[in-house]
Structures are given as C-alpha cells and as structure tokens.
C-alpha cells in the first residue's frame, strides 16, 4: 500500500501533488526511502542539492538539519508559530523573483499554485483592490498587466486563499 502525502496546512492537496514528484528516493535528511521527492525551492547554507521527502519538510526536521527555509513571509504581525510553519514546514513555490507568502486575517493563506487565466479574469473587486494596495497600482494598471495573462509567462500570478474570510489574494512578480 502506497504511503499518502502528509497534510500541509498552507498548501492545497493539488499543489502538494505537483511539488512532490512520484519518484523513489533516499531522503538526505532522514536516510529513509520515500516514494516522493520534493521538487521545490530550498534556501540553505548547505552547498549542493538536497534530496528531501515530504515528511522531513512537514515535521521541520529538514529545516532544522540544514538550517533551511522553504518560503519567506513578510507579515511580522503574525504569530511566530505561523511564520515557522510557513517558512520551515511548508513546501515552497517557484517564482520569478520573490516567493513571499500571502497573509490575511492574522494568518498565512493557503497556496493554490499559479493562478489560471480564468482566476484572474474572474477576480472579485476585493481581490483586485487588495492587489492594487499591495503593489501600489490602480485599476488601469490591473487591466494593463492582467490582460492576456497566462500561467508560465513573463509575469507570475500566484493564487492564495484566506482561510478565514475566503478572500483570494494574488501575489505577483515579473521575469
């Protein structure tokens, strides 16, 4: 029977299925065989590539062993436990420049992956307003930058969901 992935609070199961590849590996951290290999960013003082299983990320042992983090979160008003969970126990995502984690309602948000073109086209007014405030842009800029958006292009739009008020938040960057 195949072992299922651990449940991560701040990413969807769908995203977990893309950042953990089905690939039998020996985890550098726990030295155990794993049916899944982490395929995301690791920020560490350790030289070279580190092969990790999902369980060593989930329990924080990889972050501890390699003085590593997987994400950045810039909202310093969050409880330390939330920051630790996001930075040291949550798989990261790849972005063009800065993979800062979205926060809202005094909590980290859940990452869904790259926003789809439909997500952007259907963005609610509160989502658009939050993006404009976060990036110091106006409605005309939203229209300019988001027109014709496609995942994997020269700009990244990363979809987060507030666990408390259901607001969709888009983090954004360029190549």
UniProtKB/TrEMBL annotation:
InterPro entries given in the database record = UPF0167
Top-rank taxon, per record:
Bacteria
Question: What is the similarity comment for this entry?
Answer: Belongs to the UPF0167 family.
Q: What protein name does the entry list?
A: CbrC family protein
Organism expressing this protein natively: Chimaeribacter californicus
At the highest ranks, the source species' classification is: Bacteria, Pseudomonadati, Pseudomonadota, Gammaproteobacteria, Enterobacterales
């Amino acid at each position: 029977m195949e072992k299922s992935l651990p449940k991560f609070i701040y990413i969807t199961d769908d995203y977990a299925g893309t950042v953990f590849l089905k690939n039998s590996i020996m985890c550098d951290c726990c030295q155990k065989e794993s049916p899944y290999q982490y395929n995301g960013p690791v920020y560490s003082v350790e030289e070279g590539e580190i092969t990790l299983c999902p369980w060593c990320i989930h329990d924080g042992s990889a972050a501890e062993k390699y003085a590593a983090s997987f994400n950045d979160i810039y909202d310093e008003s969050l409880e330390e436990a939330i920051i630790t969970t996001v930075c040291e126990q949550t798989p990261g995502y790849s972005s063009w420049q800065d993979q800062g984690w979205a926060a809202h309602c005094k909590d980290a948000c859940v990452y869904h992956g790259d926003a789809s073109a439909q997500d952007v086209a259907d963005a609610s007014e509160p989502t658009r307003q939050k993006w404009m405030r976060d990036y110091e842009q106006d409605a005309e800029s939203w229209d300019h930058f988001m027109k014709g958006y496609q995942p994997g292009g020269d700009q990244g739009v990363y979809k987060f969901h507030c666990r408390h008020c259901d607001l969709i938040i888009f983090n954004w960057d360029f190549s």
